[in-house]
Structures are given as C-alpha cells and as structure tokens.
Write a structure and sequence with these properties.
Number of helices: 49
Shape: elongated
Helix content: 40-55%
Number of strands: 24
Distance between the termini: 63 Å
Length: about 1450
C-alpha cells in the first residue's frame, strides 16, 4: 500500500509540473521555444566573400556589408574560387516567431528560417509540437504557375470552394510555395475567403515553404531571440525580382541555402518534408494507414511538369485543373487520347496553343523529353485525375481530390490489406460520408456485418455520426457489434475528456485506495465495466438496479492516464468482476446510447436512440443522467449543453408517448408503469418524476393514468358529489348509483363480444387481462373495499378528519384549556399521535427503493412536510411547556401559534384542485419575491427610522421604544398611520414622557424654553415626504410590478407544475391506509405487527410498478418501436415542411440554377472558340497542302513525291513510321524506358512512344552509355560505332541507354521464376503457391533468379531452400509446365542488354515428400518462406501477377 501511495504521489507531482509548465508566463514559454529553435534549427550563411560581376556583391548574391568580417578576405587573397558547397556554413537560425501582416483582418502567422539540410523530422516536430498543429488526415500539395495568371471566375470560385472544403472536412494541411504570386496567391485568397465567412472553429492550415533568399522585406523578421511578432510589410510594387510572402498563409518555412535571389531552393526540402509527413500514421496507432498525399496542379511550366512526373513516380495522385492554363491544359488535352496518339507533333501543337510566345524559347530536345514524360503521366491513369469544371457530371474540386486518392488506392498492387478497407479507412479519417456513399458503398457491393465492425468502432471513437448511420444502413448489426463486452469496454476506454470520465476515474481511485492494487503494467489503470454501471446508477438514482448483472467473467478495459483527468492520482485499480446481462436482456442500442449520452454527444446519441428497444425509457433516463451531470459539473457551457440535450430527449419521450396514446390508451398506460429491465428495473413514470420532466408528466395520457389511479376502482366519470354521498351512505354503491371501473370494463367486453358474434359468428378471443375475471360481477365486499380504498375517498376522509382536528384544537385552545388536561385535550393528543405515526410511516415507507437518505431528502424538500414537522415540533414544545406550572401560559401561546401553522397546512388540500392548485404555486412564488423585496424595503425603513429617532428623541435608552421608533412606526407610515410627533401643530405633551421614565409612553422630543419641540419642522416633514415617495409609491408599485411579472411568468407554467406535483399527492394517498386520523393509528399498529413480528413485506401495488410477462413485454416493446418509427417519420416531415427548410431548399435550387446557367454560358462560348480554332487549323492545313501540291507539280521530279507536307513543327517522322507505330501500339516496352535508371543517378535519353521501334528514324537519338562496372557512375558518351553494340539490339526497341547497364552481359540475360503450387485441402478448394520474402524490399516474391539456361534452378535459391530441397526441385524442373518464355519488360534493360524470363509451374501433391520438406522449411525459415492463396489479393509485381494469372487458368481457377 505504501508503494502504491508513493507511486501516486510521484504521478501527482508530474501532473502538477506539467500543469505548471502550461501556466508559465508567455515570456518564459517564448524563451524555451527560442532555446529549442537555436538548438535544432539552423540557417546558412556565406563564409567567403568573392566579388561577382558586379562590385560589392558576392557570388552568393549578398552584398559585402551583409557578410561577416571573417568572410571578407584581403584584396590580394589568391585562394580557391567560391563554391556553394564549401563556402556556405550552418549557423543557429536568427529568424523565427510570429509574423504580423497588418492591414485588414490583422493576419498573423508562424514562421521560421530553416537550412536546406534540416531534417524533415525536426520540421515535423516544429509543426506539430512547437506550433501545436494537429497531425493532418491529408496533405494537399498545391503546385503550378509561380507567376500571376488568370483564372476564369467560375473556375476560381470552384477551386477556392473545393480546396477549402476538402481541407476543412478532412483536417488537411495545404502546402504551397508561400509567396503572394501565382497559384500560392490563389490558395491564400481561398483561405482568406474562408476566414471571413466562417466562425473559425476549424482553422485552415496553409503552410508556405518558400526560399529565404527571394523574400522581399525579410530584414524585419531577423532577431536572434525571435520576433513576437515581426511586422511584415507587403510591398508588391517595390519587390522587383523578389517576392512578398502571402498574408493569408498560416505558417511559413523559409528555406535558406546561403544565397540571395536564387529561386527553387526550397523544392528539395519541401519534397522531403512531404515524404516524411506521408510516412506518418494516420489517426490512431491502431490504424494501418499513413497520411495520404495529393498534388493539385494549376497552370505551370516545365518545372511543374517535372514536379508532376516525380510525384506520380512516387505514387502520389495528381489532380489537374483543366482551364487553368499552360502545362495543366496541355496534360488535360492529351489525357483523353491513347498514348500512341500523344506524339511529338501533338505536343508541339499544344505547346503553341497554351504557351504562346513562350513556346519559341523551348528547344526541340526538351519537347521530346516533355512528350515522353506526358506519355508516362497519361499511362499512370490511376494516379491522374483531370478536373473539368465545364462538365455537368463533374463535382467540386474537393470530390475530385478525394476520388483521386481513392482511385490510387484501388490500383495499389503491393497493398497488403484489401483495397476497399483502405478506401473506407481514408473516407472515415476524412469524415466524408458522401465519398463513401458514391465510391465504396455502391449497389454492387455486398457487406457482412463482421467485415465492418472495425469501421464502426473507428467511426464511433472518431465522432463520425454520419458514418455510423451509413454503416448501419449498409449491414452493420449493433447486436453483433456489441455482442462481445470487450468492444463496449474499448469504447469506454476511448471516451473523450468529459465529466463522466472524470467521475469514473475518481470512482476507480476511491475503490483502488481501499484494496490491494494489482501489479502496475505501466500502461494505465485497469477499469472494469462494473464501475461504469455503478456510476450510471449514481446518476440515475439509487432506486435503480445496476444496468448489468455481475458475472464470473473478467471483461475489462484499460484507462490510461492520458484518458482521465490529469489531476487524478495514479493509484492502481482494484480487481472486480464485471457485469454482464443475459443475451435476452441486453440491448445493444441501449449500450451504445448510454455511451453516447454520458459524453454529451447529441448526434451519436440520436442515432443510437433510434436503435433502442425501450426508447421511451431510454429518452427519460438520458434526461435524468444529463440533468444530474449538469447540476454536478463546473463548466457552465457544458452544463447548458447538457440541459438542452436533456430537453431534447424529453421532447422525444413526449412525441413517442403521444403516438402511443393516440393509437392505444391502455397500452400507453402500461408503458408508463412497466418495469424496464434495460434501465435499472424502474418505470418511465418514475424516471420522468426523478428527472423533473414536468412537460412529460403534464401530458394528457399521463394525467389520465394518474386520474385513474386517483379514483382507484371507481370510474373516473363519477361526479364528486356522488362519491361524497356514497362515503356517508355506502349502501348506495349496491344500487348502481356509483359506477366502478370493473363495470365499465365488463360492459366494454360484452359489446366487443356481441360485435364479434355479429360480424364473425365466433366468440371473442380473450386478451391478456383474462375474460373470466372480467365477466364475473363484483361482490358486495369487493365494492365496499373498492370504495374506501380509493385514494380519492381516502383524501376526502382525511379532509374531514383534518377539519375535525382543527375544530377540536380550536375548542381546546379557546374553551377547554385547563391545567389538568380534559378529555377533549387528551383526544387531541391521541389525534396528534396518529398524525406523527403517519408522518413516520411516510418517511420510512419506500416502495421505490430510494433508500433512507434519498427518501429523507425528498421528504424534507416538500414544503407541506416541512410545515408538518414544524407543527409537530411546536405542538410538542407547547405540550412540554403547558405541563409545567411556571410555563403554562407560554405553552398555550406556543400552541396558539402552532394552530396557525396547522391552518396553513390546510392549503395542501387545494393542491388536488384543478382551479386552486395552480394558484397555490403562484402564491408560493410571490412569497419568495416578497421575501427578497423586504430586504430592499428594510433599507428605507431603517434609514428613515434611525434619522427620525435621532432628530426627535434625545438619548432614549429603552430598547423596546427604540425599536418602535426605528422600525415599527416607519412601517406603519407605509399603511397610512402618520406620526403626530413630527409636526408642531399635532404635538401633545401629555402623550409622551419628559424623562422617559413612563414605560407606557414614548419619550418626548427635545424641547426649547417654550416647551415646544426644538427640532426643525421643515426637515422632518421633507424627510417624511421623501420616505413616502420612495416607500409608498416607488417600492410598493415595484412590488406590484414584481407580482404581476411573476403571475404572467408562472401562469403559463402553473398548470404544468401543478400536474407534476399532483403526482406525488396521488402517490401519497395511494399508499396511505384507508382509515383517517385518529383511527389510522390502528392501521399503523397492524403495519408494525406485520413488518416487525410477522416479518412480512409491504404489499406491492401494480398501479405504479407493473412487471409484465416476457411475451407480453416483447409485444409491448415491438408496438412501442412501431410508434417510435411513426413519430420519427412525422418529425422529419414536419422539419422538411418548416419555413427554414423551405427557404434553404429554395436558396440551394437558385444557386444550382445560377451555376448551371453560368456553366452553359461558358460552354457555349468555349464551343464557339473551339470551332473557330479548328476552322482556322483546317484552313492552314489546306493552304499548306495546296502549296505542297503546287511545288510538286512545278518541280516535276520524284523528290516531291517523297516529301511530306509539314503541317506541324518539323520533325523526322514519316507516314510509314506513324502507321507502323500505330500497329505496334500495345507491344512497346514501358519499364525499359523509365526516365531514371535504377540504382544510379543516370537518366535515360527520352524515347517517346512513337520512336521506340528501331525501324522508325530518330536522328536526335543520343543514348547514354552505362555499365555497372564503371565506378564513375558509368557516365560516357555512347559508342555508336562499336561493332558489338551495333549488332546487338534490344528486340523491344529503344530504351534511351546503351551498354549493358546493370545486367551481367550484353544480349539476353536469362531469368527463371518458379511457381510451386499445391492444393490446401483434399477438396481442392484453395490453390496455394510458395513465396519467398525479399529482405531488401520487405515483400514476398516468387522464387527465382538469373540462370545460364532454363533447364536448371537459379543458384541464388540454394541458400534459401537448402541443398536437399534445392536438388529435389531441380530434379522436378523438367516435369514442370512452362507458363511463359520470352522477353521481359524490365527497368534494367538497355539498348544492348535485356531480360528474358522463363516461368515454370510445378504442381506438387500434398502428400509428397517434397511438400513435407517444404513445410518443414516454411516452419524453420521464420517467415522466409510462406504458402499463400492464389487469388486477386496477391500482393506481387505486375509481371509476377500476370504469371500467376496464367497458372490459375492452367488449373481452372479464377484470379
């Protein structure tokens, strides 16, 4: 125990330290941040000044004055020349902090000057930990034109709206170049528009990664200790070749390489940062996804093309906006064509069209390179998305971005998990239910509930209510989802920080401090589900039972320190058995609803409530829980939200009950008093009373039940006078003078029976009440007992008894109050004793199981009970006094006062009256108002009284007369009793005592020589007038106004409050013995004898608590669920027909129509322009063709026949070559022409699709020579005249590189892949293949390797398989089936060396020795070898997947 206590103290100290750090002064926090920046972030500066062409300017671009003295060398210095890599050094950064842009909006941003060599991990730490950014769910890299460009108004609007929407809904980071030009400016404008139009609840994160050396006015940002803030001035006019930062970005990383005026420095670090972020886990640790990245492209030039190409090679999907200009439009135009039609000539055309005059600066070799890259980009169609704003079917940019990511995930070949699971995880992380509906949950897809349980858990924990609804609509069964209690435990473990979690942790600590803690796991406290049940019972009330029954299982969940309040100690939880309900008594909807309610989550609770079986009890229980938490919580805002949600569920309960009551009154009343096994074995009526749901209790159906209980077995339609008459002359009940409810029911049954016989000719099917008892008439004794046991009759007898008691009390006080008690007085004492016994019975009688403390608190909170206690105490005190001779008269006085209290208690009889009951509530409220008003009035009374007494009377020391003069007389003045001693004309010296010795007269005012008052008469009169003005006119009218306001305010609610309080009165008289006082004491003796002597429990009344049979309860709950559906349907219809919804729908329709009109207008103008351009193009072609014909005729030679008209930019293409190209369109290798050669820094010469065949002339083709043995990276010009290279040509065509490359020799390099297959079982249901783990790539591949001939296994497999197994498989190689043999498109291929692959399938018998040896090897290899199912889920390269597909076809299996 001491050890646990010490551990708790240490944890508490750590928590205090953490809180103290958070509460540090801003200056100390800035100092800590500055220290971290200097330790981890560096800048770069030039350490060697060397003049450039211009004087006083260094090669780095900075002037001489911006260099240190150490960097400036003497003029005669003859050292080496300036080199960026050697003469730029790193120093601690001197520019970081907050950036204030000023101007409209006063935008602020974070910034830091960082070195190009800064680790991306450090930058990520800076962003997330130091700048407090939440990790993103998506990274959007926006690239394109760095110069200002024009965007059409509609495209601009669509881009702004879509970009911000995707960032806002998914929690994305937007990364741009950060300057106030080009595409970065458009992103900044989008962020600005969002900032101006939103409440900034979800701030958009726009990170600008810019070059430090090109930022204009950057001097203001330099301070070694940081700037908080630095005032940045945007000088667009005077920036020259430099650029200003965009004032709408939120964070800036300013990349420094030590140079000035050099653009593009940030590209490499930005790429590394994006790659680092994309490697981080998405969301929780359990999630298997990393943060997705998407590239959005607007406009752009050749640099943008390289960015797109490299991004797609790294697997990053790109979204290109058509219509934004230049390279974006070039790619968009070419993307709709087959790769074979994307020729060099076409790219020339598109470049001329979209680049204009800038096209003249592009060399032909660059056009060829760009053609090759555009072809590769188009070929990676799964990573390319073209957003066309002019198409009607195209949605916003946000949908295009998210669809691009989903499309990329669908086609991932090496993805270990299922594609649909990855897509769903992404959609949930982004909280985009619209994407999930259109892309994942389509009509063709079929889902099992178990397949979506993980998604349901993620959506619940991540607070994604729309996804929860979507998953429920698409097959998730809540009963199956929460069948295992461990799932519910995990949900409670993942509760967000809330009041319930705080209370739950306190309960755990309180329990664990009393028990021996288990060994601490270091992960957190172990909390069992029983604590949840205990806390819920505490919120609902002790009168309920635990919502889960204890069981022997050990289901629990761990609640870590981070999950609970930081102020709680780290004591370990005690072990305790959890609680479990039988499957028949568990309701998954109830469990989920309770989990949502305790965290005050309205949307999730609404969804779960619709799944509850006992929906009305659930709504009332939620109202009670929320009101209890609101009363106990300290946060006023959260408390208000809880109260609003409690009112919302009270409305739900009212709506469902109204539907039930309008459908079937009897069933609705059963629902009110039915014992709910799902909610602590309590009833709806009890929950409504405990939750103070006055509106629910005031419903006509609830009041009808209460009226029925009030009347007992008597009919509710009996007039009061008949009941009163029968109370005195009870034989009238046998004459039919008084109607009983049993008689009404019998008449109703007889009518139904006659109708059934008339219509169907058969007897009526009896209901659950039992027709036998219904058809039997009541006996004489039953009628008599039913009359006098009715709460209504009990109440009337008690009124008569109480009047008799008051009459007797008055007689004793006024006529028969002797020193020796008379018979009447003794009778009064006995009568009072019966009243005391009844009050004691009410205190201890607890049919609802509240417990003594709860029952006592409820008893004391009732005003009438307080009056009862006060009257009894006063009576006992008066009785004690009157028994003594010295205090006899004092005792009588006390009893007289007690009589007043007893008379006030008489008002309680009016609470049952529909007319007077509400008025009593108004009187009580007015009494409270008057009580507070008296404080205000007492100020004026005392102020005037003291001033008057001091002016008139000189040194009167009689306390009683002082009080009369200060308080009593000013109070009487208010009611018109004006004093005579303030006016000389009314002064009478005989009415006062000169020296104050006469105890019956007040002391005379101070007199002068004439024996007249000496006080200034004018002053006393003025004081009286002012006093009357404020007290009589102002304050009394204020009191009247307060009463009027209270009346108007309470009048509307009095009926509701009266109906609510009426219920307790009915319950009191329902449980009260039938005999009135003083005869009730006999009933008390019987109750005492039965309880204490016979040990019998009290009778249980079904009127307020009715336990139904299982079948009847199930039928009732099914009917209630049907009524709930009707209520929800009507509520939705009412909401849809509301004025607000109609206005919103109309506004949306107008917006849609406006957008369609704008789109049609743009499309019509674009179509006209397109037609004119085509007409112009055809005219130019026709002119050139006619010119060529004319030149040919004039020359009359053969040259004209061999010359083709040049309709496009001159190239060395021929019609024959183009035709050959189109024929061989599908046969060209692709991987062999990858721009970057593997495992080297070498790039291939670009070979477009049309130039691949050797037969097509390619005069500018200059491939680079490379051989892996040349350790200088193999750079050397091609040996075009080498005989060996000329004779050995790649059969697949040009590759862009000559030599043997990374292959072992020139010509074909043989490779063999072995596909070993077997059947998993005897039924041959599953075909499996053997795979080997590639340790370098970390994936499984087919066993294979280089060979000298196809007749033997690769020698590289021998270490993996072992000598014995290798030889056995080598012997079986000849028995195998050759699946494929020929040229293989490999990234290592060159013009003179290439790969040729042979794939052999060896199918093994399950019982063969070879399979046994392989199985032993699989076990001993520890994951090096593995049997895998041959299916579409196979994660291999495209070539090997094609091989497996052929093997599957060989064995008649689908792939």
């Amino acid at each position: 125990m001491e050890e646990a206590k010490l551990h708790s103290q240490i944890a508490h100290s750590l928590v205090q330290f953490r809180e103290a750090y958070k509460n540090l002064a801003p200056s100390l926090q800035r100092y800590a941040f500055a220290s971290w920046m200097k330790e981890n972030i560096c800048k770069k500066e030039c350490c060697f000044f060397q003049k450039n062409l211009r004087e006083e300017v260094c090669m780095c671009g900075y002037s001489k004055t911006e260099h240190t003295d150490e960097a400036i060398k003497p003029e005669d210095f003859t050292g080496d020349t300036w080199n960026r890599h050697r003469h730029v050094r790193e120093m601690p950064t001197d520019a970081f902090g907050d950036l204030s842009f000023g101007g409209l909006g006063q935008n602020t941003a974070k910034y830091a000057r960082v070195s190009t060599d800064t680790s991306p991990e450090v930058l990520y730490t800076l962003l997330t930990e130091k700048w407090k950014l939440s990790p993103p769910n998506l990274l959007i890299s926006v690239t394109g034109g760095a110069k200002n460009f024009y965007l059409k108004s509609r495209l601009k609007s669509v881009f702004h709206r879509g970009l911000i929407k995707v960032a806002q809904t998914t929690g994305a980071w937007i990364i741009t170049g950060g300057t106030n030009t080009g595409v970065m400016k458009h992103v900044g404008q989008a962020v600005r528009d969002y900032t101006l139009s939103s409440s900034m609840q979800n701030k958009i994160v726009a990170i600008g990664v810019a070059t430090w050396g090109v930022i204009h006015n950057r001097e203001e940002m330099v301070d070694p200790e940081g700037c908080f803030p630095a005032h940045y001035v945007m000088d667009i006019q005077g920036q020259g070749r430099l650029s200003c930062l965009d004032n709408n970005h939120t964070h800036f990383l300013l990349v420094d390489d030590g140079t000035h005026g050099r653009y593009g420095v940030e590209i490499e670090l930005r790429t590394l940062l994006e790659k680092c972020i994309s490697g981080k886990r998405l969301g929780t640790k359990e999630c298997g996804l990393t943060i997705p990245v998407v590239c959005v492209v607007l406009d752009g030039g050749p640099g943008t093309l390289n960015t797109i190409y490299n991004a797609m090679l790294n697997g990053t999907p790109c979204v290109i906006l058509e219509g934004s200009g230049r390279i974006a439009d070039v790619i968009a135009q070419a993307s709709g064509l087959p790769v074979s039609r994307v020729t060099i000539a076409l790219i020339h055309q598109l470049m001329i069209k979209f680049f204009g005059q800038e096209y003249d600066t592009f060399p032909d070799l660059k056009i060829i390179e760009w053609t090759k890259k555009i072809q590769d980009i188009i070929r990676m169609s799964h990573l390319l998305t073209i957003f066309r704003a002019s198409e009607d079917s195209q949605k916003d940019v946000d949908v295009a971005i998210l669809q691009a990511l989903l499309k990329a995930s669908k086609s991932s070949e090496t993805l270990g998990m299922d594609s649909w699971k990855r897509q769903l995880e992404l959609a949930i992380a982004w909280n985009r239910v619209d994407i999930a509906e259109t892309e994942i949950f389509t009509e063709e897809s079929q889902w099992k509930s178990s397949d979506l349980h993980w998604a349901m858990f993620s959506a619940l924990v991540g607070n994604k209510p729309q996804f929860v609804s979507l998953l429920l609509e698409n097959g998730v069964n809540l009963r199956d989802f929460l069948k295992d209690e461990e799932t519910l435990c995990r949900l409670y473990k993942q509760l967000p920080s809330c009041f319930f979690l705080h209370k739950l942790a306190k309960r755990v600590n309180a329990r664990s401090s009393r028990k021996r803690a288990r060994a601490h796991t270091g992960e957190g406290k172990t909390i069992f589900l029983t604590y949840v049940a205990d806390e819920v019972r505490h919120l609902l009330g002790k009168f309920t039972h635990p919502i889960y029954r204890p069981a022997t299982g050990m289901q629990n969940f761990n609640l870590s320190i981070d999950d609970i309040s930081a102020a709680l100690s780290k004591s370990e939880a005690a072990s305790r058995a959890p609680l479990r309900r039988d499957p028949a008594e568990r309701d998954a909807g109830r469990d989920l609803f309770l989990w949502a309610v305790v965290q005050n989550n309205k949307q999730l609770a609404e969804i779960a409530w619709e799944q509850c079986r006992d929906c009305m009890s659930a709504a009332l229980a939620a109202s009670k829980i929320l009101k209890t938490m609101a009363a106990a919580g300290s946060d006023a805002d959260n408390a208000q939200d809880m109260l609003e949600l409690a009112g919302h569920y009270e409305k739900h309960a009212i709506g469902v009950f109204n539907e039930c009551h309008s459908s079937d009154e009897e069933r609705a009343r059963k629902l009110l008093v039915r014992v709910s096994s799902f909610w602590g074995r309590t009833t709806c009526l009890r929950l409504a009373l405990e939750a103070d749901n006055k509106s629910f209790v005031a419903l006509s159906g609830v009041q009808g039940l209460l009226t029925q209980i009030w009347c007992g077995q008597l009919s509710v339609y009996n007039p009061v006078w008949r009941v009163l008459l029968c109370m005195v002359f009870f034989p009238l009940i046998y004459t039919g003078f008084l109607v009983f409810r049993h008689d009404e029911l019998m008449d109703r049954e007889n009518k139904k029976s006659e109708e059934m016989k008339t219509e169907a000719g058969s007897t009526q099917r009896r209901n659950s009440l039992g027709c036998v008892s219904c058809l039997n008439p009541m006996g004489c004794w039953s009628r008599l007992m039913s009359l006098y046991s009715s709460p209504q009759v009990k109440f009337y007898w008690n009124i008569v008894s109480y009047f008799a008691f008051l009459f007797l009390f008055a007689v004793v006080l006024m006529i028969d109050f002797q020193r020796t008690p008379s018979h009447y007085e003794l009778m009064l004492y006995i009568w009072l004793l019966s009243l005391v016994c009844e009050e004691a019975r009410q205190m201890f009688y607890d049919p609802d199981g509240f417990g003594f403390h709860k029952k006592a608190r409820m008893y004391i909170n009732d005003l009438w009970n307080i009056l009862d206690i006060l009257s009894i105490i006063l009576f006992l005190l008066g009785l004690a006094f009157r028994m003594t001779s010295q205090l006899f008269y004092a005792g009588k006085i006390i009893l007289c006062i007690d009589f007043v209290v007893f008379c006030l208690r008489l008002m309680a009889i009016f609470t049952i009256s529909r007319t007077l009951g509400p008025k009593i509530i108004i009187v009580r409220r007015m009494m409270m108002d008057m009580f507070f008003f008296m404080f205000l009035l007492s100020i004026w009374v005392v102020a005037y009284g003291v001033a008057k007494q001091g002016i008139l009377i000189d040194n009167d020391n009689r306390l009683d007369w002082i009080i009369r003069g200060v308080v009593y007389e000013p109070y009487l003045i208010i009611f018109g009793n004006f004093p005579t001693n303030i006016d000389n004309t009314a002064f009478n010296i005989e009415s006062c005592s000169m020296d104050g010795t006469d105890p019956l007269k007040p002391k005379c005012p101070f007199l002068n020589e004439n024996q007249t008052p000496a006080f200034p008469e004018w002053l006393t009169i003025i004081m009286l007038c002012v006093y009357l003005l404020f007290a009589n006119i102002l304050l009394l009218n204020l009191l009247i106004a307060i009463f009027n306001f209270t009346f108007q305010e309470v009048q509307d609610n009095t009926d509701r409050i009266w109906k609510f309080q009426r219920c307790e009165l009915i319950k009191e008289y329902h449980s009260r013995p039938a005999a009135p006082p003083p005869f009730i004491i006999l009933s008390h003796l019987c109750i005492f004898f039965r309880s204490m002597v016979l040990q019998k429990t009290h009778n249980k009344y079904r009127e307020f608590r009715n336990e139904l049979a299982h079948i009847e309860e199930e039928e009732l709950l099914s009917w209630e669920a049907l009524m709930k559906d009707k209520y929800l349907l009507s509520a939705r219809q009412a909401q849809n027909q509301s004025m607000e919804r109609q206005i919103m729908d109309t506004a949306q329709k107008v917006t849609t129509m406006t957008e369609q009109l704008e789109r049609k207008e743009e499309m019509s103008s674009a179509t006209v322009l397109q037609r004119l351009a085509r007409l112009e193009e055809q005219a130019i072609k026709s002119t050139k063709a006619l010119q060529w014909i004319m030149d040919s005729l004039k020359s009359q030679g053969f040259t004209a026949k061999e010359t083709e008209p040049l309709t496009l930019t001159a190239t060395d293409e021929s019609p024959d070559s183009l035709r050959k190209t189109s024929v061989k369109e599908k046969g060209f290798h692709v991987k062999s022409r990858h721009f970057y050669y593997p495992n080297s820094k070498l790039t291939r010469f670009p070979v477009p699709e049309e130039k691949v065949p050797w037969e097509v002339s390619f005069s500018s083709y200059m491939p680079t020579y490379y051989a892996s043995e040349d350790h200088v990276d193999g750079y050397k010009q091609s040996l075009m005249f080498d005989t060996d290279l000329l004779n050995i040509r790649n059969p697949g065509g040009r590759t862009g590189i000559s030599g043997r490359g990374a292959l072992s020799h020139l010509g074909p390099n043989l490779n063999l892949d072995l596909v070993l297959t077997r059947w998993r079982d005897c039924e041959r249901s599953v075909l499996e293949y053997l795979s080997i783990r590639d340790e370098i790539q970390g994936i499984y591949v087919l066993p294979g390797g280089p060979v000298d001939s196809a007749g033997q296994l690769p020698a590289t497999l021998k270490p993996t398989l072992g000598k014995k197994l290798y030889e056995a498989l080598n012997a079986k190689l000849s028995e195998g089936t050759k699946v494929f043999e020929g040229y293989m498109d490999d990234c290592r291929n060159t013009d003179n060396a290439w790969m040729e692959t042979t794939i052999i399938n060896i199918h093994l018998d399950r019982s063969s020795q070879v399979v046994v040896d392989i199985n032993h090897k699989v076990v001993s290899s520890q994951g090096g070898l593995q049997w895998q199912e041959l299916s579409t889920k196979t994660a291999l390269s495209s070539n090997q997947r094609e091989s497996l597909q052929k093997v599957a076809e060989l064995h008649n299996r689908k792939f």
